[in-house]
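Onboarding guide, step 5: your first structure request.
Type a short instruction followed by the sequence, for example:

Predict the 3D structure of this protein.
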Amino acid sequence: MYELYTAVLRAVLPCTHEKITIFRGALKRIASSMAKALQVEIWRGDANGAFVRYAVPREDNQTILDVVTWVQRNTDPCLSYRFACRVGMCGSCAMTVNGKPRWTCRTHVAKVLYGSDRLRIEPLRNLPIIKDLAADLTPFSEKWQNARGRFKGRKSRHDNLDRVAPASNERQQANAHVECINCAVCYAACDVVKWTPEYLGPAALNRAWVAYNDTRDADRTGVLRAVAKAGGCLHCHTHQSCTEHCPVELNPAAGIAGLKRATVRAYLSGTLKGGLKG
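The system replies with structure tokens like these:
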């Protein structure tokens, strides 16, 4: 192949030996890249769609998001997916890769191939599909609100700020769970969410645990009331899938266990009215 291209170049261009050497090097790199091409299956369409196969050149230090972006820019501009920061901060690029939910901007191809050259990329599970790799996060966000994960203040701007001791147990518990980026990876990994659609899910309950441990909150009992309802913390089976898959290495299962203990204590003390529902 190289000899053919060289002959063509000599026939139509005043090529020097140096130019021919450069051209041959470029051809070798292209051929090497295509020889190592990834065979990528990507979900296309809505819930009734199907996988479409693409050949993507293999690159060093290539991430899953790089692969999806290459397909969108070079092969299929209609491919829909979601991303923003590309540095593991926003949580928007999560997808299912070879059967597991992952954030794609920080997941390298070499980590998930397991000696193969095939990738299967699909939207997050347990969520409606908008199109292609873009999942509808509305149920996820609504459950986050239903778990009463938002802060409820008790002071005005005219009052002095509450002091929170950094070494207090409540502060330490909040610190261990507050860095959630709402990527929904834990939600997609959770079997209980799959079995029980009303289950609030690990991310929402993890946030509720942070709110409960915020001593400045005006209604900490209200947090327990929200998570003690049907589909709340007592519905968790402690499979630990959320902790296993969390890309920022949080432990939502530990937070849910804390909520279970807190709700039972509140119920036995009479603070929590209406009973517990699992």
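Each response can be followed by summary notes, for example: The mean pLDDT is 89.
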